[in-house]
Design brief:
This protein is about 0% helix and about 60% strand. A six-stranded antiparallel β-sheet has the order 1-2-3-9-5-6, with no helix packed on it. The two termini are about 15 Å apart. It is mainly beta.
Length: about 90
């Protein structure tokens, strides 16, 4: 098992004993503005945590997600949203 942090991308790579790799993204500045945003990767279902100006948003109440596309209920400026998530 190995865990490697890439400081240039802000991701953690975890390689388990079976050889599969799981990636973690922390504090990704989500691309977009208004109500439409896009993550750099498609998160594993249910692993995403989305923050707007430091406050955690609630799925289905504050935003919806389909693949790597996020639609927020409120309008946000570019750079207002951060995301933590896991992807394969």
């Amino acid at each position: 098992m190995a865990i490697v942090f890439n400081p240039f991308t802000g991701t953690f790579d975890f390689t388990g004993t079976g050889g599969s790799t799981v990636n973690f993204v922390i504090n990704e500045v989500v691309s977009g503005s208004g109500t439409s945003f896009t993550l750099a990767n498609t998160p594993t279902t249910g692993t995403q945590e989305i923050y707007a100006l430091g406050q955690r948003l609630t799925p289905t109440t504050d935003y919806t997600i389909s693949g790597k596309n996020i639609t927020t209920i409120a309008t946000w400026n570019a750079g207002d949203l951060l995301a933590d998530y896991q992807y394969s």
